[in-house]
Amino acid sequence: MSDKTTTPSEAATSAWIHIMRARDRLLAAIETEFKTAKMPPLSWYDVLWELARAKGGRLRPYEIEERTLLAQYNLSRLVDRLEREGLVRRETFDEDARGRWVVITDAGLQLRERMWAVYARSIETHIGCKLAENEANTITALLARFL
């Protein structure tokens, strides 16, 4: 067994740095735009979006975790907060009384729509107007390799 460490190429290192910097800057810009519009943070949108597009508007907590970038402990607190705000509700899972569904409410659907208006503008401002269609498709294809 060799102790030799593999060193990434300069191009791979540069790509990593650019991906991370772009991600951080884009997320910060979007969060700022949500805050300016007096909207909740992007994590709220992510959960509401996944629930809105799920069959019946409901998912198990682990399914939300799989579909978002939220760790379980953060997700639990966020779902508690969304429930207190009336944006989601919990329902007992019929097949397993211990399990729970997280279900989006009408208020949650309405908030997601309002947030989308801000988010869509942000995507266009920070991505859409800076890339030609073929460039956006190329970036999508390249990044899809990591997913």
Automatic annotation (TrEMBL):
A Gene Ontology molecular-function term? DNA-binding transcription factor activity
Domain of life, per UniProt, equals Bacteria
Q: Pfam families under this entry?
A: MarR_2
Residue limits of the HTH marR-type domain? 12-147
Picking any one GO biological process from the record gives:
response to stress
PROSITE patterns, per database record:
HTH_MARR_2 (PS50995)
What InterPro entries is this protein classified in?
HTH_MarR-typ (IPR000835), MarR/SlyA-like (IPR039422), WH-like_DNA-bd_sf (IPR036388), WH_DNA-bd_sf (IPR036390)
Record's protein name: MarR family transcriptional regulator
Q: Which organism is it from?
A: Rhizobium phaseoli
Q: What is the lineage of its organism?
A: Bacteria, Pseudomonadati, Pseudomonadota, Alphaproteobacteria, Hyphomicrobiales
